[in-house]
Amino acid sequence: MEADATRVVASGVRFQRLVAANRRTDIMMASIGILVLMVASALLASVLVDLILTGWPRLINPDFYTNFPSRKPEQAGIISAMVGTALVMLVTAVVSVPLAVAAGIYLEEYAPKNWLSDIIDINVSNLAGVPSIIYGLLALGLFVYGFGLGETILTAGLVLALLILPVIIVATREAIRSIPRDLREAAYGLGADKWQTVSHYVLPAARPGILTGTIVGLARAIGEAAPVITIGALTFIAFLPPPPVQSTPPFVNFDWLTSPFTVMPIQLFNWVSRPQAEFHINAAATGVVLMVMTLAMNGLAIYIRYQLRKHQRS
Amino acid sequence: MQPNLRPITRETTDVSSAPGDSNADLHRHQESVPLPHGNRADVRKLSFWYGKTQALKEVNLPVVDRKVTALIGPSGCGKSTLLRCFNRMHDLYPGNRYDGEIRLYPEDENLVAIDPGLVRLRIGMVFQKPNPFPKSIYANVAAGLEVRGIKKRSVLDERVERALRHAALWDEVKDRLNGSAYGLSGGQQQRLCIARALAPEPEMILFDEPTSALDPLATAKIEDLVQQLAGEVTILIVTHNMQQASRISDFTAFMLMGEMVEYGNTDQVFTAPEDPRTDQYITGRFG
Ligand SMILES: Nc1ncnc2c1ncn2[C@@H]1O[C@H](COP(=O)(O)OP(=O)(O)OP(=O)(O)O)[C@@H](O)[C@H]1O
Ligand SMILES: [Mg+2]
Question: What is the pTM of this model?
Answer without folding.
Answer: 0.78
